[in-house]
Design brief:
single chain; alpha+beta; Erythroid Transcription Factor GATA-1, Chain A; 2 helices; two-stranded antiparallel ribbon; binds zinc ion; 2 strands; 33% helix
């Protein structure tokens, strides 16, 4: 039996065996909170985010896959 602390809320998580898929979070909710925080910081550094862009599906389409025009 081992434990770790959730990096989002600090709650102690007890697990047995291999690390849980949610590590280092206690729940998928905390995972999304951290991801959202990280994304906001990234966008804030680069530029302002429009509502359309905020609704972009994840992951974003990698460059080079846009249809080519002749
Ligand atoms: Zn948590």
């Amino acid at each position: 039996m081992s434990t770790y602390q959730c990096v989002t809320c600090g709650r102690e998580v007890v697990y047995d065996g291999p690390l849980p898929v949610r590590y280092p979070f206690c729940s998928s909710r905390c995972q999304f909170v951290d991801l959202g925080k990280w994304l906001r910081e990234q966008y804030t550094i680069e530029r302002d985010l429009t509502p359309e862009e905020a609704g972009e599906p994840w992951p974003p389409r990698p460059p080079g896959e846009e249809p080519q025009r002749r």
